[in-house]
Write a structure and sequence with these properties.
- The protein is mostly beta strands.
- Helices cover about 5% and strands about 35% of the residues.
- The protein is built from 1 helix and 10 strands; from the N terminus they run E-E-E-E-E-E-E-E-E-H-E.
- Strands 1, 3, 5, 6, 8, 9 and 10 form a 7-stranded mixed beta sheet that branches. Strands 2-4-7 form a 3-stranded antiparallel beta sheet, with no helix packed on it.
- Strand 5 and strand 6 form a beta hairpin.
- It is globular and about 45 Å long.
- It starts with a strand and ends with a strand.
- The model has no long low-confidence stretch (mean pLDDT about 95).
Length: about 150
């Protein structure tokens, strides 16, 4: 599968996510930018997940229907054309990191997928639902990993 380069002005790959983006901070989604979206893409899907959550992989952000010609999203905004779906917090939009105090740093995987068509997901989609729906049909994807610890 081809690769999309996914970056953030707020943190580098493998580095700590700023407290401003955390649930116990200002809870502002980080700015993201991407490049390398292949021809034939009709929409992008953005997922942020924490596989280190005690109750299983936790969805922090899920956005479907993103304009494939877009090149990113500013901090605190919805990606162009995107529909924000409910997170593990039960509300649509960004829900920042808030791992249990004292846990080792959790990993937050930001993933962007280039899709050839709309994806069908349940209203309360889990990370597993997203992967089952997009992993086989994605034309390309990109990943950025941030860390957070309280």
């Amino acid at each position: 599968m081809a690769g999309i380069e996914l970056r953030s002005a707020a943190f580098d790959d493998g580095a700590y996510i700023p407290r401003r983006c955390a649930k116990d901070g200002d809870d502002v989604s980080p700015a993201l930018s991407w490049s390398g979206v292949p021809d034939g893409t009709t929409e992008l899907l953005l997922l942020c997940e924490d596989p280190d959550a005690p109750s299983g992989t936790f969805v922090h952000w899920l956005v479907t229907g993103i304009d494939p010609t877009s090149e990113g999203v500013e901090a605190g905004q919805t990606p162009p054309g995107g529909q924000e779906r409910p997170t593990g917090w039960g509300e649509p939009g960004w829900g920042g990191p808030r791992p249990p105090a004292g846990d080792k740093a959790h990993r937050y995987f930001f993933r962007i997928y280039a899709l050839p068509g709309p994806v069908s997901l349940p209203g309360d989609a889990t990370a597993g639902d997203v992967h089952a729906a997009v992993d086989q049909q994605a034309l390309a994807s990109g990943t950025l990993v941030g860390l957070y610890q309280r």
